[in-house]
Hints:
Elements: E1 30-34, E2 38-44, E3 55-61, H1 90-97, E4 106-113, H2 118-133, E5 141-147, H3 153-161, H4 174-182, E6 185-189, H5 195-209, E7 213-220, H6 227-237, E8 245-250, H7 257-268, E9 276-279, H8 286-296, E10 310-318, H9 327-352, H10 361-373, E11 383-389, E12 391-393, E13 396-398, E14 416-421, E15 433-438, E16 445-452, E17 474-480, E18 484-492, E19 500-508, H11 509-512, H12 520-530, E20 536-537, H13 539-558, E21 564-567, H14 575-582
Parallel strand pairs: 4-5, 4-7, 5-6, 7-8, 8-9, 10-15, 11-21
Antiparallel strand pairs: 1-2, 2-3, 9-20, 10-16, 11-14, 12-13, 14-15, 16-17, 17-18, 18-19
Helix pairs in contact: 2-12, 5-6, 7-13, 9-10, 9-13, 10-13
Amino acid sequence: MALSSPKCPSSSHFAPAPSRHRRSMASSSISSIQSPARRYFVKRSAFGSARSRQWNVVYMREASTKEPVTTKKEVPLKNVGNGSVPKISSEELKNLGGINVSEKETTVSITVVGASGDLAKKKIFPALFALYYEDCLPEHFTIFGYARSKMTDAELRSMVSKTLTCRIDKRENCSDKMEQFLKRCFYHSGQYDSEDNFAELDKKLKEHEAGRLSNRLFYLSIPPNIFIDVVKCASASASSANGWTRVIVEKPFGRDSESSAALTRGLKQYLNEDQIFRIDHYLGKELVENLSVLRFSNLVFEPLWSRQYIRNVQLIFSEDFGTEGRGGYFDHYGIIRDIMQNHLLQILALFAMETPVSLDAEDIRNEKVKVLRSMRPLLVEDVVVGQYKSHTKGGVTYPAYIDDKTVPNDSVTPTFAAAALFIDNARWDGVPFLMKAGKALHTKRAEIRVQFRHVPGNLYKKSFGTDLDRATNELVIRVQPDEAIYLKINNKIPGLGMRLDRSNLNLHYAARYSKEIPDAYERLLLDAIEGERRLFIRSDELDAAWALFTPLLKELEEKKIAPELYPYGSRGPVGAHYLAAKYNVRWGDLGSDHYQA
């Protein structure tokens, strides 16, 4: 397969895949490819996008005729420690430098474990099809669904086809693409703890790999209590013998520090850290990925990104529906574990981190970990929890959380939480970071709000009356829905008098860009295939995140602190407003934001 495609330029399919975002400005990087008597040096150009980066190959004869050093064979899933492929195909070498070497072609086998579940049907298979539709998948690839349910290949294809959609601007060849994609989808039924069943899967995978260099990706779309069983069986019976093997793990990653650490230890019995891709789909959202671009590539923002100019930062997540039949699962975790400890905390770390050395995955993740380790442990007095109750509106009665048949009648699990967090470092000392997340609220949204300080000695303060908060600038990054970035500024209303108005400088994505925004799972699946780890969570990052929330969660549960009730469809409990007022903050989502595209 060519190293790049005009529609979806792709990095090479031998690993470690070059970071799409890496820039080596001081010097170019060199990697060597060993053969018995020769070494190929592959030199990456220092400039340009990694996906479109030019590669130069220098062919050198070894001065020594010694046989290359071989390493001992390791545990199957650990046989390639960093997810890399030990050899490079002849087709790739041709693309790199026109060198004729007899090697195998590569193929990628993607196994969706838990293929009959909602996540697989609604997100994973559609995301894989979208990548295929955009020519982002390798030339040779196979997709297998694996679950306990009995199902034929045809039945899987019928189930998957109902959830596939095409890009709005390319629907003319949609049916042909769907048919071609579905021909690559197969199914194998088996138990999650059966090595024999995974050995049968391995046999089927090898049939489709047809002797090519095999790379295998397992997506664990299953409950966390069976992660270890699946990884153990895949390790023993279905890992790649000559290529990389990677595993995508869905949240939740435990319930607290202890269970999370136990899960990590269990996974690392069979996997190296570089083979584990802990997915948080919010990190794949377009506006979240754009956060570092907005900050580090615009001079107007970076100098303001500190305690000197920012008064507070708000991370807001709200859903306008309840648990909707997921009450049994949700009651075991609650809104803090489900949303705040992962989605919102990851966004906070990206927002607040120092400038990384480069855009390499490890450099970025190092900075995120520094932020998390600089944060104060959460105190109960800095947290408000709530739970929605039944409410009648417009003649329609909406149920309470405890009306869900899968939820205990005396449940005190919060469906809403607000918290004030602080980062004790030189950049953010004293700046409150307010989080708010809830279900069954008045609207659906996820956004970051940055409220700047008052203008010192403001000449126009008399024009604003007594409420100076309404005169402060605010940057809003709306992650979903209706993606947008807008900055609230003060300006003069046209006319002879001096009347001031608050207006928005607005980038509305739907109006600015005609191209459909890819789903977060598309970006993350492509990154996992390419070995790009920037948007995945490292184990020490996970440990630091749990260290912040575990003491709070234990106190809430041990003391059985009752949540404040709020009506279904409201703005949440009143206590959240008192919490914000405690730090002289007003929630930015209280009023309606009117902006024109």
